[in-house]
Design brief:
Blueprint (H helix, E strand, L loop, with lengths): L1 H27 L3 H4 L2 E9 L2 E5 L2 H13 L5 E15 L2 E12 L4 E14 L2 E9 L12
Parallel strand pairs: 1-6
Antiparallel strand pairs: 1-2, 3-4, 4-5, 5-6
């Protein structure tokens, strides 16, 4: 159990680093620090849309589009909950509840995001990026 706790903490630290890099990119427009947390290939799933980014240039362009699409008065984001589920010793599911805020401190809204992170030669990186439809879209049922 102790080894799992250490791995879960490593994954949570990876997410925290990614989150901080995202907030900074939102302020500065510099997406390069996000690439340290981006596994290539990266798979992004949003609804029925699936995109695969295999090259660094495509990953950088993806992050640039996301950062450019932030509202002009974007101030910062806060991760309220970060759940880590270890899939194996080298892969994990991360699910977070995030709020984005205006520079004034007013909240735009909350959303959920999930990721599959993998541990390779570059350490923990996000390999799959999953967009949730709503705050309540994540459910588990056993069959």
């Amino acid at each position: 159990m102790r080894g799992e706790s250490r791995l879960e903490q490593e994954v949570a630290d990876c997410y925290r680093g990614y989150h901080e890099a995202f907030v900074e990119a939102g302020r500065t427009g510099d997406v390069m620090p996000l690439m340290a947390f981006t596994h290539l290939p990266l798979v992004a799933v949003a609804g029925a849309n699936v995109n695969v980014f295999e090259e660094a240039e495509a990953g950088e362009a993806r992050w640039s589009r996301i950062i450019d699409d932030l509202p002009e008065d974007y101030g910062y984001s806060v991760a309220h909950e970060t759940d880590v589920t270890m899939i194996s010793s080298t892969s994990a599911l991360i699910t977070v509840q995030v709020s984005r805020y205006k520079r004034s401190g007013d909240e735009y809204g909350r959303f959920r995001q999930s990721y599959i992170a993998v541990k390779g030669s570059e350490g923990w990186q996000i390999a799959i990026w999953l967009v949730h439809d709503s705050m309540d879209s994540l459910s588990t049922r056993r069959f």
